[in-house]
Amino acid sequence: MTHYSGVITHPVTIGRRDTIADGTSFGSSVVVRNCPGFVSFPDGTSFGSWVEVSDCPGFTWSEGCTFKGRALPSREIAEERIRKIAATVAAEPDRLHMGDWHCGTSHCIAGWAVHQEGAEGYALERELGGEGVGTRDAGLLLLGLEAAGKFYLNNDAALEWLKSKLVEADG
What we know:
Layout: E1 3-4, E2 7-8, E3 12-14, E4 19-20, E5 25-26, E6 30-33, E7 46-47, E8 51-54, E9 66-67, E10 70-71, H1 75-91, E11 102-103, E12 106-107, H2 109-116, H3 119-127, H4 133-143, H5 145-148, H6 155-170
Helix pairs in contact: 1-6, 2-3, 2-4, 3-4
């Protein structure tokens, strides 16, 4: 069991019994995988590099966190953006292409986040490094941590996840 606090400068994989203090700053990548009991990062956690939360069914949300100095979106805003993407690709599944950030009128999940924000989304993507890493990071800032854990799924799994977000909204 590791307790993380203060400024952490090395890559981290959070384990099932690890804990994180409020206000912890991660300067390198953070990965949380297969942690059923992990529900959120504490308020004030900051991320300077990639953060991924996947296969953590208890994960809900992380309010008050920042990524590369910018606030992560509120749950409501992120979920609205995700539902908008989900509605588009559920109606036209060929417009989801997880193998490319942007491919004509098709995009991956992160690419859709950038595209649906229009000029501001593409400006954010460029500011964060351009197509590729910039798309991924802009997607995280626009859609939040849960969605970022889905950026590398295959088309079928990504479409299934997006459709589940429409079902949640209707339920």
